[in-house]
């Protein structure tokens, strides 16, 4: 246990420094390369993944699981399901030793878990790909190293905040000619059991921050995966339990709680008095339900949904703008919480390095950029991945009727469930069309009276309905300044003039704050101090000196 | 404005250091002494207070106010009441300049406000005394310097947390032979308008932390005082508005929102979409109502109520124990959120330096200590103060019937509304008697099967019903260790073996964490990082370097 802490101390220090400087930092290599991960890693992971299929993940009584790859086959893996009361009882039995461990020792254990998860990133890539529908490279990066970085970031924040509480204080208060004296001791005490409710699209990337933040602050954790994406979290928890046991802790410090759509257990767990913290990633309907059920009696950290805006005012690189935006719309078929949905453009068009472009010319150029990006089916498959949920296809069909179809959605060849981006033109006042989240490869080009109205609508809809990212293109510093003020107030991270290899969808651990907590897209930020400070309280003892 | 920051920088640095070390620190002298505050300060304050009586506090249309001194007369002061929509509109108009100001400049303004409030502590003492019923010295200390220290502490925490966010970062990510580059800017943005809902017993001590934390993090604030204790907060806000104007800000950065019991406005304000943060001190019934209404859509920091336990296991200073405990029971007639209510003692008594004392002997000794403390009517009046709310007398009458009266409550001579402590003996299983908060000078001596049962009941009731303080007396290190573990888990600050001049009721800014947030006594701690970190979010802008 102490060995793990010593082994990983330097990395933890680097992570803490990076979270403060917000400069680029990554602990885990993102390239799915044999030179980094071992020349046989990819093939071994494919074999290991194949060996998991069609059988129980581990033994147990009530086995559940009906995951189906968006690329085709059912996985046929089942997982032992335990009743909430049993999960809670086991967590409570395991919790005290974890709570009482030295925070540095806990951090060592967690970094060892992350280290082993990183080593197994190729297997995780297969698991993420065949549950979420992400294409392989994204499944590797977002499901593996980038998620691991987010986990490490959470540990770094937790250690920073825990370190602010002194362990002892000698309190000497002058009182006339006397001095009042107290010896005081302080200790960070975990809130209770953490519950992490996972999502179907980024089960590890969105799950690790809450998991590692709650663990680092001393809480046992129960992870309730989405029924469609159990495997990535089951692999995670298997690794975590192994390391826990090696470090001398009860494996039940971390437990998997799979369920089924027919008999969901998230509400029962979330409202259980022993659950002290809830982390949820998913839709706003269940998010609102959880907020109501919990009613402020325990911390609830959510990432729900948003309608991410793009405002096109002017550009010095129109071709780059269109290429960059097309990629953002197409990447993982718009199934990222950071993908743009609403592109606000003045009806009078925009100034560009190619001269003034009319609204229709802007529309045509974005469509052309999408068509070019997706012309080669193999490349298109690598960008788009597959559609995680069949319901998304229904949403696409409905969205076609909301305005003028500028570019229709179509499947790619092959057996995977796929859909290229749909782009629909609507008027600014058609808020019933663009004013709610339409998850998937659905975007609107919104004809606005002018660029100021475009900005105003983008900011207003962010505040009212939530957004996680915003993108603005302008060559006018004054317009950018107005955009910065408006989006800061609306609580959304703003990217400006992206025309190259950085995309609005991307949020880098240690540098980009993901979700603000200040609009309906979510209650918390990955990761800031507020994400960790309410996962523990400070216990105090004072007594007269001996 | 910059001048205020420069003037107070050294004090702010000291306060930040003290909040980290938790050693004794106080910025504002607690002694109501002419040598410190000016030989004429006391008399001038009495005259100033008298001049406030019987007239409008300031001009305005709808005047409200019906404060009555628990020491006798109605104050006859009225205050202009504005509709919530007007208050919000004025706050929103004043907010942007305050939000955009440099945090250090804001802190300077706030420390200047605290400096002037300190200078006027004698006037505040009169205002607090004649609304809350606190005796003069407590009204001076708790209403003045101690409250000011709590306000300074909140500013210190806010400045610490704001300082962690860098203003810029140069992000350079290696990407093959290329480097991806982004220039990033970060800014802390206030959540919205802060609402502070005040209480009737410690309007400034409990109100200043939220007020100053929200202001320091850039939020405009509306303060809704309890109808029975408007004046202390009206004086506070008059000072704050004066300093705001001198510093070039709109006075409406801080506003008073008085209301009446007949037409309360707290709910309407708390649920207004423009209100971004709510701080509430008061009863658990309204606390639960607020939690349900707000349902996790904005941060809600509460201090509600608890049933503070005392566990008597053994002592090396029985006389000191009884004297200390009697003072804690009598101080401000038990109307402190930190006052003990439930004294758990084994039916077999306890070991003491005077030999084994039976349960009945312990009871008799505590009663005798109370009688001795209160024997001299002048001294008794100075300790007990007056009863803030007539309803407390009704509660005392009802509590007499809950068990065997060990010491009856009685009024002191004079016209003030007073009541000495009632001590009632009950059995451990009479949880319907001792298991809920009975606010005021009401305490139970609870006959437990043994000391372990006493500890178990104390900890269980803390977790279930909430407590802000706990006190244990024991000469057995193993028992103390068990108590420390149990009360840490139950989320209550523990004092051990208090026999001298420090009392369980006392919570010192910068050293004692007040309320844990981990049991029903409240959702937040005064003051830890979690108290300030959710009052702002971090806005980010990234763009390719020029």
TrEMBL record, chains A, B:
Protein name: Phenylacetic acid degradation protein paaN
Keyword Membrane: no
GO biological process, one term: L-proline catabolic process to L-glutamate
Domain called Aldehyde dehydrogenase: residue spans: 87-484
MF annotations from Gene Ontology: L-glutamate gamma-semialdehyde dehydrogenase activity
Pfam family, one: Aldedh
Gene Ontology CC annotations of this record: cytoplasmic side of plasma membrane
Keywords (A to Z) from UniProt: NAD, Oxidoreductase
